[in-house]
Specification:
single chain, alpha/beta, Rossmann fold, seven-stranded parallel sheet, globular
């Protein structure tokens, strides 16, 4: 008799990361479910979801009884839950929206997992963010470093982390792994933010912000999927928080220089004070979140995830950057 299929539930499956993760899990023979806030027929992104994934339409903030019914059905009998869905933009979303979508929705998901599976062991893998450390930090940041979330988004992600840890402590049949992701790049993540910067570099309109030596934190999408799968498979991950980046100390200056080289554009020679750049960003249509990333300064340690899970980033910005530029068009 064939073994019972592992059942996985993904929130945020319409993102490039979620869709690639779903593909990987289907390929490994898992039964994959996905929670979608809107009917799949009305969402363009769902055309990239692999065949065989079963969608459940439910808003995790639970505005209606139908959402509650569908969420409970989606949660019943699952083995692993990948909680990727989130509101991400500080400039676009209010504090109330970020708290509802990133915190209250997480509480609801946990509650319905427990209700639907009173005696079943479940592993929740949560997509958090390195933004919980703050945007300007000195020294190497480990998982034990003090968190200093500065923006509403970062605070909402850290509160969600605390909710998950507390809930799992009170409900021992639910275990968790938290992955603090750097900024994702790669196929599906070039537009609009990366393309906007590439366009400015190509036109000779980009400037280094400050001296350009600040460190920017990245993780390629397929590498991130590798880490989620490893966290699912390795019991060492249970109850742990992991930093998830490519482990490279990228600087603003190096990344801009590489982009100019790949596009055969003139190298950037001028810089602008961050205060003036913050004012000027509006004319270049760079939003507040993009600007905060460009002036951020974090060097993230990933020794723990390398050691515990055997995670080894494969992607290199030198190769993937060219592919991203090729996918951007004026």
């Amino acid at each position: 008799m064939p073994g019972k299929k592992t059942i996985d539930l993904i929130t945020g499956a319409s993102s490039a990361l979620g869709a690639e993760l779903a593909s990987r899990l289907v390929a490994e023979g898992h039964e994959v479910r996905a929670i979608l806030r809107l009917n799949p027929k009305n969402v363009e992104e769902w055309r990239g979801i692999p065949a065989g994934v079963k969608p459940y339409v439910a808003d995790l903030t639970l505005p209606s009884e139908k959402d509650k019914t569908n969420l409970k059905e989606a949660c019943a009998g699952v083995d692993n839950v990948f909680h990727i869905a989130a509101a991400v933009y500080n400039y676009k979303n209010t504090v109330d929206t970020l708290m509802r979508v990133n915190v209250m929705a997480t509480e609801n998901l946990l509650s319905y997992l427990a209700k639907a599976n009173p005696k079943r062991s479940i592993h929740l893998i949560f997509a958090s963010s390195v933004s919980v450390y703050g945007y300007g930090r000195e020294g190497l940041l480990t998982e034990d470093s003090q968190v200093k979330p500065k923006t509403p988004y970062a605070r909402s992600k850290y509160i969600a982390e605390q909710v998950i840890q507390s809930y799992c402590l009170a409900n021992p049949n639910i275990s968790y792994t938290t992955l603090r992701l750097g900024t994702i790049y790669g196929d599906g993540y070039e537009k609009p933010s990366f393309c906007r910067v590439f366009r400015l570099i190509r036109r000779g309109e980009m400037r280094y912000i400050g001296n350009g030596e600040n460190h920017l934190t990245l993780i390629e999408m397929h590498d991130a999927v590798d880490a989620f799968v490893l966290a699912m498979k390795r019991k060492e991950s249970h109850g742990k928080v992991y930093n998830l980046t490519d482990g490279m100390p990228h600087t603003q200056k190096r990344l801009f220089s590489l982009a100019a080289k790949y596009m055969h554009a003139q190298p950037i020679k001028k810089s602008m004070h961050p205060i003036l750049a913050r004012i000027a960003r509006h004319s270049k249509k760079i939003n507040a979140d993009e600007f905060d990333f460009l002036i951020s300064n974090r060097v993230i340690d990933i020794d723990r995830i390398r050691r515990d899970l055997g995670f080894s980033p494969k992607a290199r910005i030198e190769k993937e950057g060219v592919a991203m530029i090729d996918r951007c068009h004026d």
